[in-house]
């Protein structure tokens, strides 16, 4: 390794004294960098107008939580329910789904610890499991696993609490408790405890996690009566219903008919192959993570087929780049760092994935598209950050931003090409837990 010398540092300092560097230094002394380098043209050229759009409900608000994948999933599902029941407005309980997701994740963590008893404590796998812990984030197949096991309920049946909307402190407690549990279980195994003794300890641990979650989120209802008024002001009261009965009656079509298509342009992931991710999940015995990796052109074509058939599309992306939160515009040219700092920050999508500069971190819903000569130039996005950002909570995504920052869409299998449908029959390639496509929305 080569140390820095005082001569080198002196030459760098002399080079820095150019006038162009002083100008930008003065500008960012009392202003945020993104405010200074904002590309005004990107704002002016992007309209909240679309040639094809689906009429959807008001946006929801995940508040200070990372439950975007749950919100986006339930936002997709609620559209058919409101139409069938002639409702003005409706939300499923996001808190209900989040409770069972957290509960199942705690068990998944403990089972993963037991599954790796023979690994050294400092092995990369054990270190990854313990360091990662659990979070609010999730994946589409994790969403379907929870719904298929626990069903859904209207928001009134399990409303938000402070901690369901502000999850930071609870997540810290849960992860502290999980890591303590990992230490206890590995110590029991090291001392030769029987499987029965270890499983008994796990039962005590899960009781604690259920208690913590119930105190923070409330206790999920095992049955409920739903009362509502439709658009015609007609009052309706349902019979006593279980969450699984409600799911079966109002969600209807099996979510197993939907599949995740990803765009991961890295050499280790050939296109037109299926992939899964080791130790990524929430419900033990639930649905495995399953992706089909395709070229971006194919991913967009499939997305358009579903969208133009009046069906919204759940998608995962990296909102860390090219977003102006106030206007709700997602544009890959939103910030001109190169021109402002007179240096290059550019990386290809493949480089960003390989070097951990980018990965999926947020899920939203595509509800419209603007087509010019049959090709998209911008997309309408339903977010879950409340109605104060964007246009009443709806965002605009430019097509170049789609290319650069969208990693996953969820579509019905009927929109896949025949060749991609046949790929679903293949054994998926297993990715390591730390692979960038193992990231959570």
Keywords:
single chain; 12-stranded mixed β-sheet
Could you explain the architecture of this structure?
The structure is a single chain. The protein has 17 helices and 14 strands. The model has no long low-confidence stretch (mean pLDDT 96). The protein is globular. With 441 residues, the chain is an alpha+beta fold. The strands form 2 sheets. Strands 1, 4, 5, 6, 7, 8, 9, 10, 11, 12, 13 and 14 form a 12-stranded mixed β-sheet that branches. It has helices at 6-16, 19-27, 33-37, 40-45, 68-85, 94-115, 124-132, 140-150, 162-165, 168-190, 195-217, 243-250, 296-307, 337-341, 349-354, 399-405, 418-423, and strands at 52-53, 227-229, 235-237, 258-262, 273-277, 291-293, 313-317, 323-324, 329-330, 362-372, 375-382, 394-398, 406-412, 429-431. A hairpin with a 2-residue loop joins strand 10 (362-372) and strand 11 (375-382). It is 42% helix and 15% strand. Helix 6 runs parallel beside helix 10 (168-190).
């Amino acid at each position: 390794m080569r140390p820095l010398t005082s001569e080198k540092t002196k030459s760098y300092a002399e080079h820095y004294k150019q006038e162009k560097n002083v100008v930008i230094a003065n500008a960012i002394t009392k202003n945020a960098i993104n405010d200074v380098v904002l590309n005004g043209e990107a704002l002016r050229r992007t309209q909240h107008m679309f040639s094809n759009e689906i009429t959807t409900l008001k946006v929801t608000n995940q508040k200070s939580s990372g439950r975007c994948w749950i919100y986006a999933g339930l936002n997709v599902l609620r559209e058919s329910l409101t139409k069938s029941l002639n409702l003005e407005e409706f939300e499923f309980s996001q808190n209900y789904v989040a409770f069972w997701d957290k509960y199942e994740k705690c068990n998944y963590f403990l089972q993963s610890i037991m599954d790796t008893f023979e690994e050294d404590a400092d092995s990369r796998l054990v270190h990854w499991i313990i360091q990662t812990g659990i979070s609010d984030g999730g994946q589409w197949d994790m969403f379907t696993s929870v719904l298929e096991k626990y069903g859904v309920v209207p928001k009134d049946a399990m409303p938000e609490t402070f901690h369901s909307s502000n999850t930071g402190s609870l997540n810290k407690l849960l992860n502290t408790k999980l890591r303590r549990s990992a230490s206890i279980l590995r110590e029991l195994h090291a001392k030769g405890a029987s499987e029965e003794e270890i499983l008994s300890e796990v039962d005590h641990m899960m009781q604690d996690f259920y208690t913590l979650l119930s105190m923070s989120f409330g206790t999920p209802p095992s049955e409920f009566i739903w009362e509502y008024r439709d658009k015609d002001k007609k009052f309706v009261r349902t019979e006593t219903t279980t969450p699984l009965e409600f799911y079966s009656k109002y969600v209807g079509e099996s979510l197993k008919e939907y599949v995740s298509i990803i765009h991961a342009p890295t050499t280790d992931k050939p296109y037109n192959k299926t992939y899964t991710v080791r130790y990524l999940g929430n419900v033990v015995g639930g649905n495995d993570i399953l992706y089909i990796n395709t070229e971006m052109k194919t991913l967009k074509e499939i997305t358009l087929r579903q969208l133009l058939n009046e069906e919204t599309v759940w998608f995962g992306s990296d909102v860390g780049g090219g977003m102006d939160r106030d206007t709700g515009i997602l544009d890959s040219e939103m910030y001109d760092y190169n021109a402002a700092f007179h240096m290059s920050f550019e990386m290809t999508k493949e480089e960003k994935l390989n070097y951990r500069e980018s990965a999926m971190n947020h899920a939203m819903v595509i509800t419209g598209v603007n087509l010019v000569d049959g090709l998209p130039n911008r997309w309408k996005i339903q977010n879950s950050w409340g109605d104060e950002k964007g246009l009443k909570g709806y965002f605009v995504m430019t097509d170049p931003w789609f290319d650069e920052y969208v990693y996953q869409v969820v579509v019905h299998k009927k929109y896949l090409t025949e060749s991609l449908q046949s790929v679903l029959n293949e054994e998926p390639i297993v990715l390591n837990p730390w692979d960038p496509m193992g990231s959570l929305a």
